[in-house]
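Bumping with the actual sequence this time:
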Amino acid sequence: MEIALHQDLLIKVLNIKKRFLGMYKVANAGHVGCSLSIAEIVTFVRFAWMKEDDEIILSKGHAAATIYSMLAEEGILSEADIQTFYKNDTYLAAHPPVNKLKRIPFATGSLGHGLSLAAGLGLAQRLKKKDKMIFCIISDGELNEGSTWEAMLFIAHHLLTNVILLIDRNRLQGIGRTEDVMKMEPLDKKLEAFGFNVLLADGHDFTSLEQAKLETQHSKLPTAIICNTTKGKGWKQFEDKVDCHYLPMKEDQYQAIMKEVQLQYDLRIDGLTELQN
């Protein structure tokens, strides 16, 4: 990955994280850990992969603040819009609204529906002979839903290579560790058996995501990328713990996360600057 692009992505994801952390703090709302888990994935897909007309579907709609913050980074939402998060009459509710905001084509968050919607869009684009790509981000907890696997069968049967499935593999769901709730491993072998080109990536690393992107280009099979992540990354007290799914942040926790996130990205951005010089 070019250093300039890498630096730009790091700056954008830092802004996105700081913005949604502020949103959650003001709203005194949970789902912080889910958003910290996918911030780099959303940032990479939107700013380093998607074309203007492509679609992104966040099936794990409870992490909607990440998408709202991304839309603000893109200039589609204003900071005034962001301030309405969780408030009465807002479009920025806990789960994404339908037909209200650009880049949010569906209301999601009732888990297990997003990939079916992506499959339908993918088939429609093929029938229309369009080159639009559909990116669908699902949680690993959603793999408990049979509808998700039905969608995979459909995508594989129709060889919908215009649908890219990204699985946020943080190994935690709302009520426990995924392997304790319903065993998923070997997940890569299961996806391969369903007819997918399966790739593994570090979901917090742009270089790793870039490599996965490159490896999708010549596949004749639909691609599923297992993005290994850490839920609540940066929230040291509750990182990789179920608590980060529902708990809102206390003031001291919010200050600590903001400091940790800023430090993490300052170091990485400075390191790239030194390389460039």
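The tokens above came from a reply further down the thread. The mean pLDDT is 94.
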